[in-house]
Amino acid sequence: MPTDKKVETDINYPDLEKHNNWMSKCLTPAVYTKLKNRKTPSGYSLDKCIQTGVDNPGHPFIMTVGLVAGDEETYSTFSELFDPVISGRHGGYPANAKHTTDLDATHLRGGDNLDPKYVLSSRVRTGRSVRGLALPPWCTRGERRKTEKIITEALSALDGPLKGNYYPLTGMTEETQDKLIDDHFLFDKPVSPLLTSSGMARDWPDARGIWHNDAKNFLVWVNEEDHMRIISMEKGGNMKAVFQRFCDGLQKVEATISSNGHSFMWNQHLGYILTCPSNLGTGLRGGVHLKVPLLSKHKKFDDILSKMRLQKRGTGGVDTASTDGTFDISNLDRLGSSEVSQVQCVIDGVETLIQMEKRLEQKKSIDDLIPKETKSNKTTTVAVRFHFH
Amino acid sequence: MAFNFSLTKLLPIAAVAAAGGAAYYKLGSNAEARLPPTRKLPFPPSADFPDLSKHHNIMKNHLTPGVYAQLRDRVTPNGITLDQCIQTGVDNPGHPFIKIVGLVAGDEESYETFKELFFPVIKERHNGYDPETMVHPIDLDSSKLTGGKLDEKYVLSSRVRTGRAIRGIPHPPMCSRAERREVERVVTDALQGLPKDLEGKYYSLKTMTDKEQDQLIDDHFLFDKPVSPLLTSAGMARDWPDGRGIFHNDKKNFLVWINEEDHSRIISMEKGGNMKSVFDRFCRGINEVEKLIHEKGWEFQKSDNLGYILTCPSNIGNGLRCGVHVKLPKLSQEPRFNEILEKLRLQKRGTGGVDTAAVGGTFDISNLDRLGKSEVQLVQEVVDGVSLMVDMEKKLEKRQSIQHLIPK
Predict the structure, then answer these.
(1) Each residue's pLDDT tens digit in chain B (408 positions)?
(2) Residue A221 near residue A167, CB atoms below 8 Å
(3) Closest-CA distance of chain A to residue B348, Å
(4) What pLDDT, on the 0 to 100 scale, is given for residue A373?
(5) Greatest extent of chain B over all pairs of C-alpha atoms, in Å
(6) How far is CA B40 from CA A40, A139, B365, in A?
(7) Where in A277-319 does DSSP place strands (E)?
(8) Contacts of A233 (CB under 8 A, 6+ apart)
(9) With b meaning 16 or more CB within 10 Å and e meaning fewer, what string describes A235-263?
(10) Contacts of residue A201 in chain B, CB cutoff 8 Å?
């Protein structure tokens, strides 16, 4: 009997004809058929991973990921799909690559005095997941509450300049709510269908909350899009202090949860594991609000940013427009380079952008300052060397 | 269209017959993806019990920690859990004045598998009907209707709708894409066999042209992707618009929605007050469709105690909403209007449908009850009730009293 090598499209294969996201690019009928009956140990399935990408066809100009993880094991259980998506999203990332973690702020060069005339504020954020508990798209109410407990217990052990308070969303008074809104700390129930389709808004506002220190420069979101989002910020240009506090806080929280028998989801290949594949690696977005009204009108502005491995956003955050020439400038890369190198990238890039703006103020040329080649941030080979120390 | 299934996974015929879905085994290769246990639950039920302290819905009234603990680990043969059924009620706390159910059935078996919750909810929602002991009457013989031609000076349009679900396939909140497509295939196949005056065309939401879409909008036939969180929280908008579509006959008075909130919704309507004609066509159409699916080995989901089974517990029994758009500008201003409606077992809505307000004294008036009364009974109640209210309106026009007309 002749063998028929053609794979028949499974009857449950989604219609992706109008779709444009990383999932739709990588989920061929063959991959679907191979993975459709697999489950992670906690029972998460392929159909659940891709639901958000099926329900949100995407946009011709913006490439969303279209895929989420329900638990740590999702990434390996469905690697035939996740690996190509990750590689596409992160600009190439081989299946055997190693990711470096470096949260030692003393490794940073400079960054403590970015010109406050141009740098209005500095900020670093990342996410962390508690190992052994399912992620927001899949967790039960019991797991979500346990995650909240583990994280808030660790935060309550912080002292000195990091000492603070937790404000659960459930039962929050109007007074507290107004204050958090004024501080720009409050997060709302997600309404974006990109998020709600994946199931992360279930049971809202159960076990969600906001923690911040008394100084209001270290903030933690609990059970929003990830188990934990950590944000360090302050006005002005002392990125080094922001990063120092960031690393300090993260390490102290990790130490406390570790002494309580828990750990963060992390592996050598993907770094810190979060819900969305776009946030793997460091999960770090480090940036400044930068006032560059002249440079931002320069025809090479976008090209310069691209070569510096930086991205611009409006000061309202992702999907907002800039007002008065002030932009949110942050690192593009997350996976394949360390926290230190990504923040260094922002510092070095912003220093140059400020120089360019000053030149333009004096009506001088900036041509000699424009980078010739795209900066390479990948530290993969270096990581292999350090592996043996 | 042939389905890809593995012969080694064919269920024994006896089990198939017992399951009631003669062709369900065709989906066997896909059912594996859902087979229980669907997940490992790491904590005891008390840790997962939802916070319903701010909630006002019927589910909350009956989901005690004890009931939850009893039901949390049960799973229907399709792998559906209680948590999936109650998600919409947990995510939508509701309102003290508007009573919503807060629960959906993921499949036919959900009603019995989780009866400790579903039955008391049904009892509260359907006026004391007890599924443990009662039998629901079905009567689709429209010849039994008396009267039914309402005064067209007041009654602008007449409409009867219901839903039907295909046995063996989970409901829209939980069905897979393959299952949803199978429902589409089974129902559209049957619709193609309808007799002359019911003959029509099927428009798939995925492939309809802009021109067809505009026409369907003009005819008020098109349904949109649900945006209400009551529906989206339950999962019924997944994979939109795959497997969804609209059928209507050439005369545009018999309409079928496929895979919106239920597997199918069947609507018969026309302008004016000839409810008899609307109900005749309704019964004929449904009975024909049922006959045609039987020929291919399929059945509707139905049981003695629950009648026709649909996604929302508020729609089981006959799933029937029989209504008119009627002009009652004077009667609606009467202080006793709501009391009159209640006594006649009728409800009012705005003419935009549920959750809309009335415009210019024109109301959508329909039956309140579903479970425990037959189709003929309910349509008769609407016909008699609307007739009476039109009489009252006429009396009020002549400034005459309506006291003696108000039902005790």
Answers:
(1) 333 333 333 333 334 333 333 344 444 444 444 554 567 788 999 999 999 999 999 999 999 999 999 999 999 999 999 999 999 999 999 988 888 999 999 999 999 999 999 999 999 999 999 999 999 999 999 999 999 999 999 999 999 999 999 999 999 999 999 999 999 999 999 999 999 989 999 999 999 999 999 999 888 899 989 989 999 999 999 999 999 999 999 999 999 999 999 999 999 999 999 999 999 999 999 999 999 999 999 999 999 999 999 999 999 999 999 999 999 999 999 999 999 999 999 999 887 656 566 677 899 999 999 899 999 999 999 999 999 999 999 999 999 999 999 988
(2) no
(3) 32
(4) 84
(5) 77
(6) 10, 11, 48
(7) 285-291, 310-313
(8) A121, A122, A123, A124, A217, A219, A242
(9) ebbbbbbbbbbbbbbbebbbebbeeeebe
(10) 91
Residues 6+ apart with CB under 8 A from A93: A86, A87, A335, A336
Determine whether the interchain pair B33/A206 forms a contact, defined as Cβ–Cβ distance below 8 Å.
Answer: no
Phi, psi (deg, nearest 5) at residue B218: -60, -35
Listed in sequence order, the residues at least 6 apart from B49 whose beta carbon sits closer than 8 Å to its beta carbon are A141, B65, B68, B69
Residue B245: list chain A partners with CB under 8 A. Answer: none
Both structure tokens of A80: 């035939």
Strands (E), A255-318: 266-267, 271-272, 285-291, 310-313
Who among A42, A140, A206 is closest to B51 (CB)?
Answer: A206
The identity of residue B136, as a single letter, is: H
Q: Do the chains contact at A196 and B39, CB–CB below 8 Å?
A: no
Whether residue A41 and residue B40 make contact (CB cut-off 8 A), yes or no, is yes
Is residue B221 less than 8 Å (CB to CB) from chain A?
no
Task: Give the gap in angstroms from C-alpha B240 to the nearest C-alpha of chain A.
Answer: 7
The interface predicted TM-score (ipTM) is 0.88
The answer to whether B218 contacts chain A (CB < 8 Å) is no
**A72 has a pLDDT exceeding 60:** yes
Count other Cβ atoms within 10 Å, centred on residue B262: 25
Q: Give every strand in the sheet of B362-367, ordered side by side.
A: B200-204, B245-249, B254-258, B264-271, B155-164, B321-327, B362-367, B346-349
Distance from CA of B283 to the nearest CA of A (A): 34
Number of Cβ pairs closer than 8 Å across A and B? 85
Instruction: Say whether residue B98 is in contact with chain A using an 8 A CB cutoff.
Output: no
The pTM is what? 0.89
Dihedral sign, CA of A54, B298, B224, B163?
negative
Helix H or strand E segment including A331: strand A326-331
Q: Does any CB of chain A come closer than 8 Å to the CB of residue B352?
A: no
Cβ contact B51–A196 (<8 Å) = no
Compute the distance between CA of residue B16 and CA of residue B27 in angstroms, rounded to an integer. 12
Distance CA B162, CA B375 (A): 10
Q: In the beta sheet, which residues pair with residue A311? A: A330
Helices (H), ranges, B221-362: 229-232, 275-295, 337-343
Nearest of B76, B318, B91 to residue B175 by alpha carbon: B76
**Which residues on chain B are in Cβ contact (under 8 Å) with A140?**
41-43, 47-48, 83
A13 and B177: CB-CB below 8 Å?
A: yes
Asked whether the beta carbons of A86 and A93 are under 8 A apart, the reply is yes
Residues 36-95 of chain B with CB under 8 A from chain A are 37-44, 47-51, 83, 87, 90-91
* Confidence (pLDDT) at B18: 39
* Structure token digits, residue B55: 């909630």
A49 vs chain B: nearest CA distance in angstroms? Answer: 13
What are the chain B neighbours of A142 within 8 Å (beta carbons)?
A: 41-44, 47-48
Which residues in chain A are closer than 8 Å to B206, comparing Cβ atoms? 15
B256 to chain A, closest Cα gap in Å: 23
